[in-house]
């Protein structure tokens, strides 16, 4: 798919900037839950009620979800996940996202969480789709915040892209990140900050989390995102899915239509899926439009 905007070949446009941004992309702690539940992630638990896992995106941690969780804590028990290697959390060796999935499913079983809802942002949304397609009987409502079953079409602008086609580029990116210094990772992230959030304060939060992230872990996660295509697998999901997209950084109606088509195609195989966009929000919707997002999550969790 290609934008029909005038002079599109001469300006970077939404998808180029989004590719940059993605490649750089009330209660007390519950006594019966471990604050370090697994090697690949840690957990903070607040609130009481129906369980909800909240998973952040690439180079982010639980801080992005805490205000949303606090707004929901009177009705839900929120499990705020922070993934190894991101935002100052110690990195692990080997595969990252497959281990996160395995250990999250173990965490759900160990603590006897009954069909918890999963709220995920970006990479966290991919993890939500991964969990629900791998264990459909164990996972409840999915709320994906600006994240997809397969990342690569964001680069290619076409859902015809396959994981096999992306293998070489993914391996190259992983190698680049393995050789990257913290300063280089920070500089790369800074290039795409305007796509991430509107306010300077929120942009600096995104940047500070990236600066504290491990470049090798980031590269491994990107490799796995680009070479893991869940579009066929998500047909196994039986629970309700809500995908919330952000179009606040788009410059034209054509680009907004292109984004909506790409997102909608990735939901085609899911029986009970809904797609909504916020026209002003940027990628970190929870930072840009917190009231709107909290209201959407609350409604979806009640249905």
Automatic annotation (TrEMBL):
Superkingdom assignment: Bacteria
GO molecular function: hydrolase activity
Ranges for domain AB hydrolase-1: 52-293
Any Pfam family the entry gives: Abhydrolase_6
Spans through the membrane: 12-33
Keywords of the record: Hydrolase, Membrane, Transmembrane, Transmembrane helix
Keyword Transmembrane: yes
Name this polypeptide is given: Alpha/beta fold family hydrolase
Species in which this protein is naturally found: Rheinheimera nanhaiensis E407-8
